[in-house]
Inverse folding.
């Protein structure tokens, strides 16, 4: 059985195609949202709702929003005596999804899965997400990772009918923006096509940040009004559960303020510190909320407009598809309506689940074609004996990903009788260089620098694996590596 998984910052959703051909959602405890969190204590590991409840009382053993740190190798979480990195946390959440699939479909031999990631995820983050998926027990093919906005567009394409669509996927941890061209054929033999024209967004902006904006105001209120003037913006170890409680209450207030026709919310806790010393009773209006989140909202506006300019114009957009937990925010809908026109806004009732549904479609026999653009630039830096860098780009951000592309370039060692050529494979994101891999070709044939030639070759296959090789031209000796785009 094949499934699609939206591994979200806040919640995870699993979708599949039934025997009747309909897109279905995996039921998890009476709903479709599996909280993406982990709790561990006394050799007991919990995920989902159980972890969420236990984490409220004991936040020191609780991990949430790990997706925002995906790709980091260090064991940055220590819970219940367990040291975890973000990949470990993702694996535990995915294992919970796998166990639930086993409960619902006990006769299935295996579960193949596609998982979604933000369009802005780098190759290392994508590789770690795939690693977590496999470690959780899911079967994968070569290409099992798809961008979240693309998945949403695929799921909604039968209702779009074709044209240029701006997909705004606003979740708990990231704001993903993709301008896509959809072509829905509507038959079982001709594929639906989704072409990514340009991607943008803000990888460090999500619903969590808006929760914290409200929580910050509540912290000030507690500091100014509680008997001990407790400052929870910098909580002591013993105070973390109170700060966590306020963040949770702030999140609920934000959700209330996001609803149509709601202009004020109350953040109340009759006994915040559990000793009867303070009753939290904090009112906040929608205007006050947007004032607290002013800088965040400005970042949202900038991200929404990031795909435009140059060859792409706002006037060419047929529809704007809003998906994700933050998609219903009034400030977002108002801004998008003013820029693109209210008649172009689509806020589907299943916006929380579209990404998972699109992943399930991609992982099915339904005909779908996706042509993508690279979000990052990939290149080789040949570090010669003089320490000079010369970047050879294989693909640049914004270029189409062509599975047939193969390019080569010759490099000199830069120093007579050099014995080694070191090649650094790097990824460039917003002018920041990140090393992906290193190749070291040792034992070069002794000769003058103009005769010591190494050929660097890049190629990419249909599953978006990039192969990089370094070959000494005079002898044919070669070393290579593979990376994931």
């Amino acid at each position: 059985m094949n499934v699609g998984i939206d591994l979200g910052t806040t919640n995870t959703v699993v979708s599949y195609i039934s025997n009747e051909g309909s897109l279905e959602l995996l039921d998890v405890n009476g709903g479709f949202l599996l909280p993406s969190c982990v709790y561990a204590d006394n050799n007991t590991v919990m995920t989902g709702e159980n972890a969420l409840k236990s984490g409220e009382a004991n936040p020191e053993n609780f991990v949430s929003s790990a997706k925002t740190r995906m790709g980091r190798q260090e064991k940055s979480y220590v819970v219940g005596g367990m040291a975890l990195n973000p990949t470990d946390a993702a694996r535990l959440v995915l294992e919970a999804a796998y166990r639930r699939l086993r409960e619902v479909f006990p006769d299935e031999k295996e579960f193949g899965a596609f998982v979604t990631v933000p369009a802005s995820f780098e190759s290392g983050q994508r590789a770690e997400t795939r690693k977590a998926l496999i470690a959780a027990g899911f079967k994968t093919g070569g290409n099992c990772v798809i961008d979240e906005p693309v998945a949403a567009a695929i799921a909604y394409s039968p209702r779009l009918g074709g044209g240029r669509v701006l997909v705004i996927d606003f979740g708990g941890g990231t704001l993903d923006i993709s301008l896509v061209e959809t072509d829905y054929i509507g038959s079982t033999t001709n594929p639906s096509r989704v072409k990514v024209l340009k991607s943008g967004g803000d990888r460090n902006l999500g619903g969590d940040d808006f929760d914290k904006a409200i929580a910050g105001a509540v912290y000030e209120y507690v500091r100014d009004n509680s008997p001990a003037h407790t400052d929870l913006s910098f909580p002591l170890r013993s105070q973390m559960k109170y700060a966590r409680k306020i963040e949770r209450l702030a999140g609920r207030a934000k959700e209330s303020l996001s609803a149509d026709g709601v202009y004020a919310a109350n953040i109340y806790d009759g006994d915040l510190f559990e000793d009867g010393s303070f009753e939290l009773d904090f009112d906040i209006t929608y205007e006050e909320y947007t004032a607290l989140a002013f800088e965040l909202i400005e970042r949202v506006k900038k991200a929404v407009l990031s795909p435009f300019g140059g060859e792409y114009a706002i006037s060419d957009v047929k529809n704007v598809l809003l998906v994700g937990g933050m998609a219903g925010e009034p400030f977002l809908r108002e801004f998008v309506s003013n820029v693109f026109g209210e008649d172009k806004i689509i806020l589907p009732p299943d916006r929380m689940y579209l990404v998972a549904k699109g992943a399930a479609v991609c992982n099915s026999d339904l005909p779908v074609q996706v042509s993508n653009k690279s979000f990052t630039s990939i290149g080789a830096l040949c570090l010669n004996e003089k320490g000079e860098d010369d970047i050879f780009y294989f693909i640049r951000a914004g270029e189409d990903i062509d599975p047939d592309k193969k390019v080569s370039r010759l490099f000199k060692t830069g120093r007579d009788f050099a014995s080694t050529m070191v090649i650094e494979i790097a990824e460039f994101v917003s002018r920041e260089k990140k090393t992906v891999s290193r190749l070291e070709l040792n034992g070069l044939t002794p000769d003058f620098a103009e005769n010591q030639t190494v050929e660097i070759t890049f190629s990419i296959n249909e599953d978006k694996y990039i192969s990089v090789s370094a070959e000494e031209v005079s002898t044919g000796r070669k070393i290579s590596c593979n990376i994931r785009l």
